[in-house]
Amino acid sequence: MQRFANAWAIFQGLLLESLPFLLLGVAIAALARWLVPQAAWVRRLPRNPFLAPVVGALLGFALPACECGNVPVARRLLASGAPLGTGFGFLFAAPVLNPIVLASTWAAFPDQPWLLVARPLGAFLIALALSGLLGLMGESALLAPVLLEERRLSQPLSEVGLLERGSGVLGAPAAQLPPPAPESKLSLAEVLHHSSREFISLLVLLVLGCALAAAVQAWLPRAWLLAVGSAPTLSVLALMLLALVVSVCSSVDAFLALGFAAQVTPGALLAFLLLGPVVDLKLAGLFTVLLRPKAIAVTAVAASLLVLLMGQWVNLVQL
Fold first, then answer.
1. Sign of torsion over alpha carbons 102, 108, 110, 113
2. Rounded distance, CA 25 to CA 293, Å?
3. How far is Cα 39 from Cα 219, in angstroms, rounded to an integer?
4. Which of 161, 222, 235, 277 could make a disulfide contact with 265, Cβ separation 3.0–4.6 Å?
5. Residues 86 and 56: beta-carbon distance below 8 Å
6. Distance CA 150, CA 87 (A)
7. Residue 121: count of CB within 10 angstroms of its CB
């Protein structure tokens, strides 16, 4: 019974910690959809494979939220026709490259300036690498079916045919097609209705993710993972596993890491702060509104390998 009580307490903590950021993310996505209908500004985003994820990562400074709040905003970006690199650059980098997380990292580790540089730089590099890797898969194999359908409706006919859109007059010459309708602004009631449904859908996935993380954490005490904290490679692997399990938001994970920072290697500490904002059990459900299962698996494996290499490199330099 004690483990069930612990799991319930962990579940409540994770949910209460994540819920405000999820609500904030949905609100920002709704506001952007209402104020800038049909993504007029999205067409001005760079399409260059390198610049697109850089711009997406820098957008994180405008959204002070953890990874939960970034999912609905990233989905709105991709559904509006933004370059894949921009959407994924924002999704993977913004949980670290935002004012709250940078400030909390500085507040938790004011005497470790290398960490204040390594964490945002590492998150930036991971976002670039994952964006480039996922971009190789192609939209059909990458994006969730509902998101893909919504995205194709926002793309011009020169890029996506009528058959791929699943709408329009098949077989009609392009010259005979009616001109595109002028962009219309959604009413506030329509935006609120759509955003409410989106919030409920994401909330269900978040609850499932928190329940999974709480159950695993209750039956896998973190003391077991910290026991190998002095071994260079094992400590990195153990803290990566801990980041997956505890699923704490990036806005407060630095303070959690402060509690065991003296027991682990520098590389393991950095690995904990880098991997959690990209991949954890809490995000497993939320990512399904963006990516297909294969793409989620590729993301998890690639992010883990990148973080492992970074952690190992830091241990070689610091130890």
1. negative
2. 23
3. 46
4. 235
5. yes
6. 15
7. 14
Decide if 154 contacts 160 (C-beta within 8 A).
Answer: no
Q: What is the pLDDT of residues 95-118, one digit of tens each?
A: 888 887 888 888 888 888 889 999
Cβ neighbors of 248 (< 8 A, separation 6 or more) are 14, 17, 256, 276
How far is Cα 28 from Cα 244, in angstroms, rounded to an integer? 27
Under a CB-based contact definition with an 8 Å cutoff, are residues 194 and 218 in contact? no
Name the pTM for this structure.
0.77
Q: Render pLDDT for 47-70 as a digit per residue (tens, 0 to 9).
A: 888 888 888 888 877 766 667 777
The C-alpha atoms of residue 13 and residue 214 are separated, in whole angstroms, by 9
Neighbour tally for 197: CB within 10 Å? 10
pLDDT surpassing 80 at residue 203: no
Cβ neighbour number for residue 207 with a 10 Å cutoff:
17
Residues 6+ apart with CB under 8 A from 164: 152
Q: Which of 142, 135, 180 is nearest to 162 (CA)?
A: 180
The Cβ of residue 140 has, within 10 Å, a number of other Cβ atoms equal to 11
Angle, nearest 10°, between helix axes 293-318 and 232-246? 140
Task: Show the tokens assigned to 221.
Answer: 């005490």
Query: Above pLDDT 90, what percent of the chain?
Result: 17
